[in-house]
Amino acid sequence: MKIVVDTNTVLAVALNEPERDWLIDVTRGCDLAAPEILPFEIGNALSSLVRRETVREGLLSTIWDAAATVPVDLVSINVKSALLLAGHFRIYAYDAYFLQCAIETKAPLLSLDRGMQRVAKELNIEIVEKS
C-alpha cells in the first residue's frame, strides 16, 4: 500500500518523538510518497527548530541524516491545482502540496497536523490515524 507522508511524520521519526514507534509500525511494508518539496520542507523545519533553540545547531547533520533514511518516493504534483486548494481552504501552499499528492496518487495521508487532517477529510482523502 502507498501512503503519502507529511513532513512532520518524517521529522517525528528522525527526532525520536513519542509518535515514532507508531509511525514506523503503521508504515511498515508500505511504499511512502511525498511531493518533491519534502527535503526543502525538512530543511526549513530544522532551521526553524534551531532558531527557536529547540534543536542545537550541532545536531542538524545528524537529524538530516536520520530523516534521509526514511525511504520516500518524491512525486511531482500539479502545483496549480495545489494552489487552488490552498486558496479555497485558506491553508499554506506547502500543506496543499501534500494534499494534492494524496489526491494524485490516490493514497491515504499520514500527518500529525490536525488542520491538514480536517481538510483531507473534507476532500475525501483517507487519513491514516491511530486506532
Structural features, described:
It is built from seven helices and four strands. By secondary structure, it is an alpha/beta fold. The protein has a single domain, classed as 5'-nuclease (Rossmann fold, 3-Layer(aba) Sandwich), CATH 3.40.50.1010. Strands 3-2-1-4 form a four-stranded parallel β-sheet. Helix 1 packs across helix 3, helix 3 runs antiparallel to helix 4 and helix 5 packs across helix 6.
**What is the average of the pLDDT values?**
96
CATH class: Alpha Beta
Shape: globular
Q: pLDDT under 50 segments (min length 5)?
A: none
Report the structural category: alpha/beta
Level of helix content? Answer: 40-55%
Largest sheet: 4 strands, parallel
Order of neighbouring strands in the sheet with most strands: 3-2-1-4
Number of strands: 4
State the gist of this model.
With 131 residues, the protein is α/β, with parallel strands linked by helices. The protein has helices at 7-14, 20-27, 38-51, 60-68, 79-89, 93-105, 114-122, and strands at residues 2-5, 31-35, 72-75, 109-110. It has one domain (2-122): 3-Layer(aba) Sandwich (Rossmann fold), CATH 3.40.50.1010.
Write the SSE topology:
Layout: E1 2-5, H1 7-14, H2 20-27, E2 31-35, H3 38-51, H4 60-68, E3 72-75, H5 79-89, H6 93-105, E4 109-110, H7 114-122
Parallel strand pairs: 1-2, 1-4, 2-3
Q: Which key phrases capture this entry?
A:
131 residues, alpha/beta, Rossmann fold, 7 helices, 4 strands
